[in-house]
Amino acid sequence: MAHVNAALTPRARLRLGKLIVEDGWSVSQAAQRFQVSWPTAKRWADRYREEGETGMVDRSSRPHHCPRATPAPLRRKIVHLRWKQRLGPVEIAAIVGRAPSTVPHVLVCCGINRLSCMDRAAANSPPLRTSPPRRSCPRRCEEAGQHP
Fold first, then answer.
1. Domain for residue 110, yes or no?
2. Which positions, given as ranges, span the membrane (predicted)?
3. Nearest residue to 53 via CA among 62, 44, 61
4. Of 5, 19, 109, 124, which alpha carbon lies 20 to 30 A from 53's?
5. What is the Cβ-side half-sphere exposure of residue 16, based on CA atoms within 13 angstroms?
């Protein structure tokens, strides 16, 4: 589905492609008619020529692969150290030889970034507080007389 500000919807792309490929319009004429740039009109005409009507739909912009992703064996080692030795991200990073910023990304992805996610005892214990809990803004503002 085309976004709101898209110059061409799939139907308009199809018309553009047919004008150039089947009706013999020049790319510059069709681009001017549809108020798009020459490279855009050429792209849609080429795609229509190669794929036909099915090529006029939106494609995913998701990358096909991520060459710099953390390798699976390293992810397994990070998760293993977290589960078995209950180490923090900095300690795990020192052991596996990676940047300390890499480890939290892996732990969040695996859902074990907090110890309370792994251990019932840690999950059931109340959080340690060094100061009283903060109140929400509306109540503080009312007490200060800022809001009616």
1. yes
2. none
3. 44
4. 5
5. 30
Q: How far is CA 45 from CA 2, 17, 59, 102, in A?
A: 18, 4, 16, 44
User: Between 117 and 47, whose confidence is greater?
Assistant: 47
Residue from 20, 19, 17, 1 nearest 9 by CA: 1
**Residue 86 shares a structural domain with residue 47:** no
| pLDDT tens figures, 31-57 | 999 999 999 999 999 999 999 999 999
Cβ 23 vs Cβ 5: under 8 Å: no
CA distance 31 to 49: 16
Q: Report yes or no on whether pTM surpasses 0.70.
A: no
Domain membership of residue 145 (yes or no) is: no
Asked if residue 100 is part of any domain, the answer here is yes
- Domain housing 30: 10-56
Q: Indicate if 77 and 118 belong to the same structural domain.
A: yes
